[in-house]
Amino acid sequence: MKNFLVLIFILSLTSCEYLNVKKTSSEAILQEELQTFNWNEVDEYPSFSKCETSISKAERTLCFQQTITKNIIDYLLSEHIVVTQDIKDTIMLHFRVTKNGELLLLQSKIDSLTTQEIPNIKQLLNKSLDTLPKIFPAIKRGQHVTTEFKLPIVIHVN
């Protein structure tokens, strides 16, 4: 009986180790979450109201890009642009959509021939963006976020 009581006493002392709960601070949880967080992707890409009917994320992304491209091309076609040489250029546009839904042209990579033939091409590109419909910003984990993306625009003038 004495051995049995000693055994129970030893077991009770060691079993307390199993009841210890490791405390985790909110900062440790935040740091762990930030490490697993993919900062290069958003849950919802920026969009226009007409793109909301698309089912998949890829379709909404494509709709957004096509809407911007079509708007820029339509605006440039509406302008009376006269050139002395044929132009076939791909302009690379670098955009930012703020968390408030503002579209900003950060940079445009334009060939020197295009700039020479159409000196106001940058102003025309900026004006074309002013005619875009309301943009809904990207969403990451339920929050509106600022995103950046690049979009090629093919210019072909005879």
Structural notes for this entry:
It is a single chain. By secondary structure, the protein is of the alpha+beta class. The protein has helices at residues 2-19, 26-36, 57-78, 112-117, 121-130; strands at 47-48, 87-97, 103-109, 135-136, 138-140, 143-145, 147-157. A hairpin with a 2-residue loop joins strand 5 (138-140) and strand 6 (143-145). The mean pLDDT is 83.
What overall geometry do the principal axes of the alpha carbons give?
A: rod-shaped
In this structure, how is the largest beta sheet organized? Answer: 3 strands, antiparallel
The fraction of residues in strands falls at 15-25%
Order of helices and strands: HHEHEEHHEEEE
The count of DSSP E runs of length 2 or more, i.e. the number of strands, is 7
Mean pLDDT: 83
Strand order of the largest sheet: 3-2-7
Helix content estimate: 40-55%
Rg on CA atoms, Å = 29 Å
Structural class estimated from helices and strands? alpha+beta
- Individual helix count: 5
| Low-pLDDT sequence parts | none
Distance between the termini: 105 Å
Oligomeric category: single chain
List keywords for this structure.
alpha+beta, single chain, two-stranded antiparallel sheet, rod-shaped, 42% helix, three-stranded antiparallel sheet, 158 residues
List the helices and strands and how they pair.
Blueprint: H1 2-19, H2 26-36, E1 47-48, H3 57-78, E2 87-97, E3 103-109, H4 112-117, H5 121-130, E4 135-136, E5 138-140, E6 143-145, E7 147-157
Antiparallel strand pairs: 1-4, 2-3, 2-7, 5-6
Helix pairs in contact: 3-5
Short structural description:
With 158 residues, the protein is α+β, with helices and mostly antiparallel strands.
